[in-house]
Design goal:
Helix content is 31%, strand content 19%. The protein has 14 helices and 16 strands. It has 2 domains: 18-266, 3-Layer(aba) Sandwich (Rossmann fold), CATH 3.40.50; 281-470, 2-Layer Sandwich (Nucleotidyltransferase, domain 5).
């Protein structure tokens, strides 16, 4: 619904535009108005005049965007004192900071001083009510945190100021909770009301992403349909957006202090703001399935002959851990293909162990797995026997190898992933992106015990079991898909 804008008049004088409001305030403060702020102000002003009521302003850290939006809120109350504005932030203290800033502007700006009420109880720090024509239950402006109870509130304008920060998005559960809280705003905003998001991305799965994250089930971007203004610290020509404040030397220092943080907070690229060791964006994604060439006794993938296969099962029963089977192939050039990561389902089969073993047998048959290594530590002690039994019943020719880890899990994961990812040798199938594996990579930190890493551990086990092999040109004759050269023997002996 498009909001109609009717500018009030006072004694025949048209109210000032936001640019005038902003420049006048800055002159009172002894400050100039940089080109960056003028650009943001003109965009906000024109969006309001055009009736655009879904807006996203993304600008780099420390550029004054929250201060500018506070001035914008004060201008809106100057235009229409009956407006109700809700500021939502990750923490209530951050939201209340904007409310206090707007309150000070109304007190001191020559265009808004008459809006200050006479009653002190209407001029609190976290909420205030200006002189207005209508009697309304809600204050003119209030600041709340994500944890606040918003049930029953109503607002004409909702400003979401930095609702996405590390504390609200560094795990998959927190990101789900954030989206659930933001969904409640649909019931708070009046029909035709305006919603303005202000912030920077803090994760690959940011709410500000321009493309849908299909691997977590998104069909469209979270803020689909929002008008966007994106202002990274460097423009498309590599020039500073605010050269008076951020010189190229300053920007270079920001980059050195943390590349991921710089990309996220200064260039507004959706990456994890934490300097994670494993970076999924370095993976190479592929589609396609196995293609057996029976007359040549080999298996192909993406037109390449496969020379080895390693499968690793890291079991778990009835706990918060997940039971995972990882499947990795290698081709003649040494490229590794993470073809499947199976998160096994519980509650199947006559008992949990047999049910999981049957799922592994089905994978062994479907993907022609020659052998499977089973983590034998702890609960996996009796699984090799159960798996061999189920393989025999299904008549699937697959060896079972008992494996016992003696090293720290973090060390295994680092050893398995670091080199192959740095060399760009790890290809990952599309289907893996539909599992929790990529999220585990995003959130994994060495030495941190919280969070899931079961898929990472299983894939690490499969990667570490891949043999180091020479290029196929080093052998005479053709190799079959498991890496053994074939020979033709002479049979014309005189006996």
């Amino acid at each position: 619904m498009t909001q109609s804008v009717t500018l009030p008049t006072t004694q025949g004088i048209k109210p000032a535009d936001f640019m005038v409001f902003l420049v006048l305030w800055n002159r009172m403060q002894g400050q100039t108005t940089p080109a960056l702020h003028r650009r943001m102000a003109l965009w906000l002003q024109q969006s309001w005049y055009d009736g655009q009521n879904r807006l996203l302003l993304m600008a780099f850290r420390s550029c004054g965007k929250s201060t500018l939006v506070g001035l914008f809120a004060a201008w809106l109350l100057y235009l229409n004192p009956d407006l109700r504005i809700l500021v939502l932030a990750a923490e209530s203290t951050l939201a209340q900071r904007m409310v206090r800033n707007v309150r000070r502007i109304i007190e001191r700006h020559p265009l808004t001083m008459a809006l200050r009420p006479d009653r002190p109880d209407q001029w609190a720090g976290d909420r205030f009510t200006i002189n207005r024509r209508r009697e309304l239950r809600e204050p003119s402006m209030v600041g709340l945190g994500l944890e606040s109870n918003m049930t029953g509130s109503r607002a004409d304008i909702v400003i979401c100021d930095d609702v996405e920060v590390p504390n609200s998005c560094d795990t998959a559960e927190k990101r789900r909770n954030l989206r659930e809280v933001l969904a409640e705003l649909d019931y708070i905003l009046v029909p035709g009301g305006t919603q303005l998001y202000v912030g920077t991305p803090h994760h690959w799965y940011t709410i500000y992403a321009a493309e849908a994250r299909t691997d977590i089930g998104e069909i469209r971007p979270y803020l689909s349909g929002y008008q966007r203004l994106i202002l990274p610290v460097l423009d498309s020509q590599g020039r500073s957006q605010w050269p008076e404040r951020f010189t190229l030397e300053d920007i270079a220092r920001h980059k050195v202090q943390g590349f991921n943080r710089f990309r996220s907070q200064m260039m507004l690229e959706p990456v994890n703001v934490s300097e994670g060791r494993l970076q999924p964006e370095r993976l190479r994604r592929y589609q396609g399935e196995l293609c057996p060439i029976r007359e040549l006794n080999r298996l192909e993938l993406q037109g390449r002959a496969l020379v080895s296969c390693s499968a690793f099962w890291d079991p778990a029963f009835g706990t918060r851990d997940r039971s995972v089977l990882a499947l990795v192939y290698a081709d003649e050039s040494g490229t590794l293909w993470l073809h499947r990561v199976f998160y096994l389902k519980n509650g199947q089969g006559p008992d949990e162990a047999t049910g999981q073993a049957q799922q592994v047998v089905e994978a062994a048959h479907g993907y022609m797995i020659p052998s499977i290594a089973v983590e034998g530590n702890g609960i996996g002690k009796f699984l090799p026997l159960i798996l061999r039994r189920e393989l025999a019943r299904a008549r699937v020719p697959c060896a079972v190898i008992e494996h016992h880890n003696t090293r720290n899990k973090d060390e295994r994961i680092l050893e398995a992933f670091d080199t192959v990812m740095a060399a760009g040798l790890l290809q990952v199938h599309d289907s893996v992106y539909a599992t929790p594996f990529i999220t585990e990579m995003q959130e994994w930190r060495p030495g941190r015990s919280s969070g899931h890493d079961d898929g990472l551990d299983a894939v690490a086990g499969a990667l570490l079991r891949q043999p180091a092999r020479l290029p196929v040109e080093s052998f005479s004759g053709r190799q079959n898909w498991q890496g053994y050269p074939s020979h033709t023997a002479r049979t014309d002996f005189n006996v």
